[in-house]
Structures are given as C-alpha cells and as structure tokens.
Amino acid sequence: MKFEDLGLSQPILQALDLKNYTAPTPIQEQAIPTVLEGRDLLGIAQTGTGKTAAFMLPSIDRLSAGEHGAPAKSCRMLVLAPTRELAGQIAESARDYGALSGLTVASVVGGTSVGKDRQKLSRGVDILVATPGRLIDLIDQRVLTLRAVEILVLDEADQMLDLGFIHALRKIVDLLPEGRQTLLFSATMPKQIKDLAAKYLRNPAHVSVAPQSTTAERVEQFVTFVNQPEKQALLTLMLQKGFASGDMDLVLVFTRTKHGADRVVKKLGQAGIRANAIHGNKSQPQRERALDEFRRGKVKIMVATDIAARGIDIPGVSHVFNFELPNVAEQYVHRIGRTARAGREGMAISLCAPDERDYLRDIQRLTKVTLTKVPLPSGFRAVVEEEEERTRSAPQERAPRGGRDGQRGGGNRGPRREGGQGGQGRGGQRNNARGGKPNPNRRRDGEGEGRSEGQPRRVEATPRGNSQKPSPHARGRTGRQPR
Ligand code: AMP
C-alpha cells in the first residue's frame, strides 16, 4: 500500500516525501481513509505505531479543504495529550506534515507562560495541541473558546484517565460543538475508555494494531538478577562496556521514582558518565533541554520515570534499562516500546532484585515472553568494591525527610503512591488510594509520576558473576541465570 492510494492531497504527499516516509504503517492504512471521510474513530494503538500521522495527515487534509480559517481565540482542531512532551511532539509532527498546507499550529502546556499562550491564540489557530489542565486554565481565563472546533483528538486516552484528567476531559468535551469529528486513541481498552468512547463518539470506525501485551519482536529482552544496593554498580559497568564496544547508541534508563532518577544521574556522574534526568520535578525548560540533548546525542543517557518518558519518540534509542522493574506489567511494555522504533532493533535489560521477582513473573505472564537471563558481567565484584569504597570515603548523604527514598528506605512497605494525580501508567488508577477528585491546584500536566516509593529492599547474598558468561550488550548471546 502507498500513501497515494489512501486519498491524501498533494501537499501532504510532498511533506511525507520530505520526511522520507515511503509507505503507511498498518494503523495509517486503516485510519486515514476513514478519517478523510469525516467518520469518528476509535483507535487502539500505542506510540511507535505511527498513530500521530494516522490522525494528523487526514485531519490536515480536511482542515485545508475548509473555507474558513480559525476565528480569533479559537482553534479548528484540538488534540489533547496527557503529557507536555507528547503534546510538543504532536505539534512538531503537525508542523512537519502540514508544512505545505499553510495551516497554523500551536501547543499549550503547563509550566509555560500563559501570556505567551494568549499571544499564540489571539488570532486563532488551525491546530491546537494541549494538555488538559492548561487548556481548562486558558478557557477559564477567556484566552480560548472551543466553539469553532471541527475535529477533536483524544490521544493516549487511557493515560489521561490514569492521570486523573477525567473531569477535565468531560468539561472540555461539553464545550465542543455537537457536529465535530472525534478521534480517540488509546493503548488499552479498559471499561472507562469504552464508556468514554460510547459517550463521545458517534458510530465510530474501529481500528487496532499491536495489542497491549505484545512486545516488539525486534526488542531482545534480558534480565540480570542483582541485589538492589548493587544495581548502580551494575548499571555503570554495563554502560561503560556498552559504549566502549560501540553497541550502545542512545540509552534510556527507567526508575520508579523521581529521587531514584536523580540519584542514578548523580552516581553515573561520579563515575564520569554524563546523563540527564527527566521527571515531573524538572521545569519545562530543563525537560526540553534534556530531551533535546538526548535526541541530538549530546548526552546519550537519559534517566526517566514512566510518565515523563511516555510518548517520547526518539528513534535512536538502542537500549532500555529497567533499573527498577515496573510494578504494573503493562508499564514494561510501554518502557521497552521506547526502543526498536522506526524499524530498528533494540535491547531491553531489566535489573531484577530478589524482591522484584513477582513483578518479573507478572511481566512474563503478560507478554508471554521469557526474558533471557544474563549473569553478572565480568569485573562486577571489583566495580562493586570500588563503589563501596567511594561511598565510604564520600561524606554521608542525608536521607530525605520522612524516609521517602525508596533506595534507602527499609521496611516491607511495598510500592506506595503519593499525590492525588499520582500513578505511573495504569497503576496510578488502581493504586490511587485517595481516589476522589483531583486537586485542581496541583500542577497536572506530565506530573503523573506520583512518588511511587521503592520496594522493600532485602539484602541477600550477592550472586557471583562468571567472567566467561556473555553480557546483554553482546547481541544475540544468551546466558544462564547466575545462581
Ligand atoms: P508515533 O506512533 O506517532 O509516535 O510515530 C512513531 C514514529 O514513526 C515517529 O518517529 C514517526 O515520525 C515515525 N513514522 C510515522 N509514520 C511513518 C511512516 N509511514 N514511515 C516511517 N516512519 C513513520
């Protein structure tokens, strides 16, 4: 199938040529003709499948065919996304795809100046990409009205619900004209999404690719068993080896907590390895800089929490490390979906502590993949001892107040969530013990990584590495479980 066969206009086809897209992806093949017809659509697809173009290309065509531009302080297409990063990427794609169509594009997200948003919107804009919290603020402040919206896109709807945006979504949709076209994309189809679709979509076409539990075949998946306190040394060593051998290109490291992400960056820095952290406590400029440096390969390692990384689309990610296993198995699928994008191969390496084995079991059950066990690499003991020595001679770090620090905190508490909007991925919904209404005073956009605390950290005898065993960065070789 070619893009030409889908009924897209010349300016779009030329823009796709400039992007070097040769053929549509399956979701694009399914969605584009339907959206061009003006039908509502319910799409089950994760990021990485090409879903942004699937809704953006036909929408641009439809908007271009219209006779009127956007009135002042309004937009013709509204795309709602759960995080600032995703909103930024969608807006960027819209600019690329619509480069020759003459449409205006803007994005409005939390953490930036409302004054600037006011300017952007004063004369109206064709395509507006927004996070729900900021959009409501702008409507409340009469910077924007939604009366001219012709197309509504709810992107990553499951994630928006997990982040507690349901009230915001209802409020926004109630302000939209009845006759609009609505496109809803979600990686999963829980009951809440079905209900949302039933309420807001009219006779929608259904399209679906890659069910949630499927991990990309091109991702090789490994697990190494290691005690929690020794994970840092292991990560450092694996990164040193991976970059020295030229196997690693861009590396994404996932932690479950913001503190954890900062600490990994700090410890890597102490070992002479540059990395950036991206999580909900970082300011918008800090996040943008981190993403930009990562994308350009200036800083090749990014340490992220789940929410901050969701939707991030950086094609050159060769390795994903799970420094801590996610406590919700679906999150694993999202994490490793950050690699092996745009037809490339990728590698996912999970560092599994003894008390994370249940999480590993859940992941393997969900994905129906048994992760290849890889023993601790050669030289690991020496690195651990060096690290211990460094820690002994360094001034003691003070534990964060209230024992929040999962890495340090003892006790058998298990993962815990804080913060009303909290929830990394789907777990946020289930574990949001406080339930109830989100606190409107909290900053919401992209701030979903409620401080999921670390897991209980029992120290067990260190598994000994075998110097003959392969490492996960030796592609294609597999190893035996190290005990
Ligand atoms: P998405 O699922 O929208 O996040 O897109 C994932 C990645 O695939 C992005 O880097 C897109 O630029 C890229 N992409 C989307 N459609 C195509 C296509 N037809 N051919 C090649 N790359 C594509």
Keywords:
alpha/beta; Rossmann fold; elongated; seven-stranded parallel sheet; 17 helices; 483 residues; binds adenosine monophosphate
Please tell me about this protein's structure:
- By secondary structure, the chain is α/β, with parallel strands linked by helices.
- The chain folds into two domains: 3-208, Rossmann fold (3-Layer(aba) Sandwich); 219-391, P-loop containing nucleotide triphosphate hydrolases (Rossmann fold, 3-Layer(aba) Sandwich).
- The protein is 36% helix and 14% strand.
- It has 17 helices and 14 strands.
- The strands form two sheets. Strands 3-4-2-5-6-1-7 form a seven-stranded parallel beta sheet, with helices on both faces. A seven-stranded parallel beta sheet has the order 10-11-9-12-13-8-14, sandwiched between helices.
- β10 (276-278), α12 (284-295) and β11 (301-304) form a beta-alpha-beta unit.
- α14 (329-336) packs across α15 (357-367).
- The longest helix has 15 residues, at 51-65.
- It is elongated and about 70 Å long.
- 52% of the residues are buried.
- The model is unreliable at 397-483 (pLDDT under 50).
- Adenosine monophosphate is lined by residues 21, 24-25, 28, 47-53, 313, 315, 341-342.
